[in-house]
Design goal:
Blueprint: H1 3-7, E1 9-17, H2 21-33, E2 39-43, H3 83-104, E3 115-117, E4 120-125, H4 126-140, E5 150-152, H5 155-161, H6 163-166, E6 175-180, E7 184-186, H7 188-201, E8 205-208, E9 210-217, E10 223-229, E11 235-245, H8 251-258, E12 267-278, H9 281-284, E13 290-292, E14 306-312, E15 315-325, H10 338-341, H11 348-357, H12 359-369, H13 373-380, E16 393-396, E17 400-407, E18 410-414, E19 417-421, E20 427-432, H14 440-451, H15 453-466, H16 478-491
Parallel strand pairs: 1-2, 1-11, 2-8, 4-13, 11-20
Antiparallel strand pairs: 3-7, 4-6, 5-6, 9-10, 10-11, 12-15, 12-16, 12-17, 13-14, 14-15, 17-18, 19-20
Helix pairs in contact: 2-7, 2-14, 3-16
EC number: 1.1.5.4
Keywords: FAD, Flavoprotein, Oxidoreductase, Tricarboxylic acid cycle
Protein name: Probable malate:quinone oxidoreductase
Length: 498
């Protein structure tokens, strides 16, 4: 090759597309397991964690199902199903264990830059809400993964725990509050940046403003990436033995371009988010918690309203929402053609079917789009009766793409996350949204097991050092859970006051 050709073509063992939480987590795991491998990250923006992983683009609720009521839905017979809550909680414990290992082994720096202790609470009003939350409490309070859960219908306790929510509220109004004092607030942007710093200092090449435009399989089974420099316009190619597409909403397009049969029929439905934000110290000091309630009748799980304490770059604030916005973009800084360009013959019917079968979602989006600032503050008053319009500002959150999977001749809209990988394990990607970054470690271990089956057994001892509960059921081993929870609380400095 000529020197010019060398500059326009390269090879690597691992190509990570996107510099968000998922890619950074997978990169850190692989760097510990295979320190000799060459790893390269390609990020279309000018830095890491600027899309979905950015602190203001998500609620930072370290999703552990302590307070999120959509993970413990009411069943048709009036019972409460806690199976998903238990699953999500266990996956978050996996993240806590790996983060603790990472802090102990200088992979991550000061944990107070990205994780803080914040109580998690669930709030409902009305007698029906009280009955539901009492059943949820009865099921979770005795579960090994939900220690220290409290529950009250006493107005004085509401005033003590969340005074901002009690101010202006009638003591006669029926309500219920369940609470955990050991919840967390996570700045996934800061966490990701620490992981990327570790990867950089251990030899990983990170290419910012480099967008992967195309993927095609080589005859030897490797993948050729066409990469465009968004600053200069120059293009080059990179051959990679393994590719992970951690590009958030951009993952669907790239997996489609790969041509792997596993992506056939899968579509995406974009949903934007908006928040009300308050940074008034007098109000912020009156609410030190993340408080979730129930979605309105007919609304999708993603619409669960919550009032969150946020600690970002050492500064406290409050977020309330989410309020849905809608554009055809798959990324906050994406293209207006993202949705139409994702349509393929194989996913056309499933995507069209969603408009007919998900009328609750359609109605919800129309209602949300019609809301002005005053209407949003009215919704906030269910949580903060004394809220004033001028105390809160609108901020635009990240863009989410919900997965549409084929189901017979139609399609099903899924609200979780899904790993898609080629049968030979040479390429994988992550689709979907919540619980997302909170369960990144569990998801990336799943990628390792799917894509490197011949190596996984050899890696297992090292992975068990990083994640002591690997392959075990924490709910069935309360002593292991307690031991690791105490360890992570200490290591991540969650026993210190915010």
């Amino acid at each position: 090759m000529t020197s010019d050709q060398v500059a326009k073509h390269g090879t690597t063992d691992v190509a990570l597309i996107g510099a968000g939480t998922m890619s950074a987590t997978l990169g850190a795991l692989l760097r510990r397991l295979q320190p000799d491998w060459q790893i390269e990250i390609f990020e279309r923006l000018e830095g890491p964690a600027l899309e979905s992983s950015d602190a203001w683009n998500n609620a930072g609720t370290g999703h552990s199902a302590l307070c999120e009521l959509n993970y413990s839905p009411k069943t048709a017979d009036g019972d409460v199903d806690i199976s998903k809550a238990v699953s999500v909680n266990e996956k978050f414990q996996v993240s806590r264990q790996f983060w603790s290992y990472a802090v102990e082994n200088t992979i991550l720096g000061d944990p107070t830059e990205w994780i803080r202790p914040v109580p998690h609470m669930s709030f409902v009003s009305g007698e029906a809400g009280q009955a539901y939350l009492q059943k949820r409490y009865d099921k979770l309070a005795g579960h090994p993964l939900f220690p220290g859960m409290g529950h009250t219908t006493d107005f004085g306790e509401l005033e003590r725990r969340v005074p901002l929510m009690a101010r202006g509220r009638s003591p006669e109004q029926p309500f219920a509050l369940s609470y955990f004092d050991n919840g967390t607030d996570v700045n996934f942007g800061a966490l990701t940046r620490q992981f990327v710093k570790y990867l950089t200092r251990t030899g990983t090449e990170v290419h910012y403003q480099n967008q992967v435009k195309d993927l095609e399989r080589n005859t030897d089974g490797t993948w050729r990436l066409t990469v465009a420099n968004r600053h200069t316009g120059d293009e080059r190619t990179v051959d990679a033995k393994f590719v992970f597409v951690g590009a958030g909403g951009g993952a669907l397009h790239l997996l489609q371009k790969s041509g792997i049969p596993e992506i056939k029929g899968i579509g995406g439905f974009p949903v934007g988010g908006q928040w009300l934000r308050c940074t008034n110290p007098d109000l912020v000091d009156q609410h030190q918690a993340k408080v979730y309630s129930q979605a309105s009748v007919g609304a999708p799980p993603m619409s669960v309203p919550h009032l969150d304490t946020r600690v970002i770059d050492g500064k406290k604030g409050l977020l309330f929402g989410p309020f849905a916005g809608w554009t055809p973009k798959f990324l906050k800084m994406g293209s207006w053609l993202d949705l139409p360009s994702s349509v393929r013959p194989g996913n056309l019917l499933p995507m069209a079917n969603i408009g007919l079968t998900e009328m609750g979602l359609v109605k919800y989006l129309i209602t949300e789009l019609a809301k002005n600032h005053g209407a949003r503050v009215d919704a906030l008053r269910d949580f903060v009766p004394s809220a004033q319009d001028g105390e809160w500002e609108k901020v635009v959150a990240g863009q989410r793409v919900q997965v549409i999977k084929p189901n017979g001749r139609g399609g099903t809209l899924e609200f979780g996350t899904a790993v898609v990988n080629a049968a030979d394990g040479s390429i994988a990607g992550l689709l979907g949204a919540s619980p997302g970054a909170s369960t990144a470690v569990d998801a990336m271990v799943d990628v390792l097991q799917r894509c490197f089956p011949s190596r996984f057994a050899d890696w297992k001892p090292a992975l068990e050092e990083m994640i002591p509960s690997l392959g075990r059921d924490l709910a069935a081993e309360p002593s292991l859970f307690a031991e690791q929870f105490e360890r992570s609380t200490r290591t991540l400095k969650l026993d210190q006051k915010v």
